[in-house]
Specification:
7 helices; mainly alpha; globular
Length: 195
């Protein structure tokens, strides 16, 4: 892990981040919800690519550790807000609020821990898998809402399947972060005392 900036994983994360406005434009500006859903699904599916390249080709960087989760969060929040604005069933809105509440709590705790001097906490597997599942769920639910005919029902089922798994994994990961956050805070404060 180093201070490199110009790496393939960082470029991929920047492209993913830059596609958020395109997704929103396709959904609301061009009024092409199916294309917007496919783009969001593609961006969610590529979530693992930057991490795999970083590990496989030793291109990990401190910037990448910030860019990758930032792109994930931006895509997730954009997708969630899109579903809240769309005229979807109340159960979908409740699911989206569960996603957003977790994201806000994690963000606030992360900033609070950093301000208190805690060392950085790495993402756990369950959190990454939960985010990926939610990133598949959001475009499927959005697409299902705009489909008619035979494909609508299996798309709803797929969206809910990924969504329920994503929420379960996400909240499980959040519970795992509690003891890790305590350790990170204690270690960060100890390291500052020794400096």
């Amino acid at each position: 892990m180093d201070g490199r900036i110009a790496t393939w994983p960082n470029l991929i994360s920047l492209v993913r981040l830059g596609c958020v406005p395109w997704f929103l434009y396709l959904l609301w500006g061009a009024e092409r919800p199916a294309q917007a859903a496919w783009l969001l699904g593609l961006l969610g599916a590529t979530d693992w690519i930057d991490g795999w390249i970083a590990r496989r080709y030793d291109q990990g960087s401190e910037l990448g550790k910030i860019l990758d989760p930032t792109a994930d969060r931006a895509l997730l929040v954009a997708g969630a807000i899109a579903l809240l604005v769309e005229d979807l069933p109340g159960a979908v809105h409740a699911f989206v609020w569960l996603v957003l509440v977790r994201e806000v709590v994690i963000a606030v705790v992360t900033v609070g821990l950093a301000a208190a001097g805690a060392r950085r906490i790495d993402v756990v597997w369950a959190g990454k898998a939960g985010t990926l599942a939610v990133m598949f769920s959001l475009p499927l639910l959005l697409l299902a809402h705009h489909l008619d005919g035979d494909w609508a029902t299996p798309t709803w089922i797929g969206g809910w399947g990924f969504g329920i798994a994503g929420i379960a994994l996400g909240y499980y990961a959040a519970a795992q972060y509690v003891p890790e956050a305590r350790r990170a805070l204690a270690e960060g404060r100890a390291a500052r005392r020794h400096d």
